Amino acid sequence: MTGNIQKHYTLEELSARFEIPLTSMKTCFKGVYGTSVFAYMRTYRMHQAAVLLRTNRRESVAEIAGRVGYDNPGKFAMAFKKIMGKSPLEYRKSFV
């Protein structure tokens, strides 16, 4: 999943791919990582976006949103602020 963060896998896809019953997979994942697959990937994407915002000033926030799997820059900005505590632009400006 982290190898291709642009792709949004469904739980059913993951269950089938790894040949693990859906409920067992969700329980096991939460036991290992302490959170759901969805929450883990959202946090992972936002941390990757933060790196891009700090290091890649030529790309717009919308372009970075697309690189981490968000087609809608507004939804990306809301998710980013929820995880990182600042909007993507505020975050980027804090590293100038």
Automatic annotation (TrEMBL):
InterPro entries named in the record: Homeodomain-like_sf, HTH_AraC, PchR_regulatory_protein, Tscrpt_reg_AraC-type_HTH
Residue ranges of every copy of the HTH araC/xylS-type domain listed in the record: 1-94
Alphabetical UniProt keywords: DNA-binding, Transcription, Transcription regulation
GO molecular function: DNA-binding transcription factor activity; sequence-specific DNA binding
Entry keyword annotation includes Membrane: no
Any matching Pfam family: HTH_18
Name assigned to this protein: AraC-type DNA-binding protein
Source organism: Desulfitobacterium chlororespirans DSM 11544
